[in-house]
Amino acid sequence: LMQSRALSRLTSYYRRALVLPISDNGRSVQLFSLVRSISSTNYPGREGYIRNPNVVQERPEWLIGKLCRDGRIAEARKLFDGLPERDVITWTDLITGYTKFRNMREARELFDRADSRKNVVTWTAMVRGYLEAKQFSAAETLFLEMPERNLVSWNTMMNGYAQSGRIDKALKLFDEMPERNTVSWNTMITALVLRGRMEEATNLFERMPVRDVISETCMVDGLAKNGKVDEARRVFDCMTERNIVSWNAMITGYAHNNRIDEADQLFQVMPERDFASWNTMITGFMRNGETNRACGLFDRMPEKNVISWTTMITGYVENKENEDALKVFSNMLRDGCVKPNVGTYKSILSACSDLATLVEGQQIHQLISKSAHQKNESVTSALINMYSKSGELIDAKKVFDYGLVSQRDVISWNTMVAVYAHHGRGKEAIEMYEEMRKHGLKPS
């Protein structure tokens, strides 16, 4: 009975400590100290409680990590400072918490204080923090100072080099690694593919001891984007495992290289499809001028997102079928499942401009004025163009004046200059041009 009551009491204290915010009177610090006191008491069954995985928490120090993960860094620090003893996990959790929220000064101060109480995980956390804060020099210096490194340390530094565009440094580090895992190979291959260094990526891929769906999909995507569609297909066909990203990469490769029929053949045998699969095919048909096939596919979609609707509208506009674009936009509003985005408004306003349909354009303007996009630079520019092509220069200027939330809105300025010039309003165009220069903007 004593054991049961003690366990129940300690569990209750743990639960309270985990949810109680730290206040000025330090109640949760006091409660946490009480938990430590109780957990150190020698009562029957104590060891079983502390080691029992079914108990709410095994170690009071876990609270530091939880607070950090929840973004409650100040509370975690207050708790940390009140601990009589701290282990390497506690130090590392708090350091990681500071780096996560880009407080590198506090993180480094703690790191330096940790001394012998830090291990390779602590060092790696600090290096990663510097990399994520884009303090690459500090990350590099600390990495070189590490007394020991593990695979995670090497991969972290290599990934930091790769993401900052220092591919040659990343390659050098890759070559220096005492051992590599799949993450190492995938990181380097992905970095090379993203930089368009396909020959080096291919060489590395061929050297890879064990390939996985990530490396293979990356190569399919990279080869296809660089016009090597047949090579991409060979890699795709050799894959022992494919996911939906792999299928989409191959379909996109065909579509972007104007091989839409081959893309369609692959699309038809896909084991599953997502929005990207359908939208890629619609885009491909539209780019190929096959608006009827695009429309047929769009109608068959089990569900449509804003990209699906916008792709159809944009495709019709690009194929000069503006009336159909307006019909799709009308259906989108009637459907009501998704709201137009910036791309949608730009495309439909372009359709109105080409048709010089002022009434429809004004109605769309009213919709925009009630949306979050009313002061978007691209939308403002599209509205100015629409009014300009309808000969409504006063309304175009009103849109410019209202939509100009920043003197750095270069798009709207250039559009307005072009509008005045197009309508033979040289004086206004020159005045607008000079005004741009006064604000340090570069007319184009």
Automatic annotation (TrEMBL):
Superkingdom to which the source organism belongs: Eukaryota
Organism in which the protein naturally occurs: Noccaea caerulescens (Alpine penny-cress)
Pfam families membership: PPR, PPR_1, PPR_2
Entry-linked NCBIfam families: PPR
Major subcellular site: mitochondrion
A GO-annotated cellular component: mitochondrion
GO biological process: system development
Mapped PPR repeat ranges: 87-117, 119-149, 150-184, 212-242, 243-277, 305-339, 409-443
PANTHER family associated with the record: PENTATRICOPEPTIDE REPEAT-CONTAINING PROTEIN 3, MITOCHONDRIAL (PTHR47941)
Similarity annotation: Belongs to the PPR family. P subfamily.
Protein name per the record: Pentatricopeptide repeat-containing protein, mitochondrial
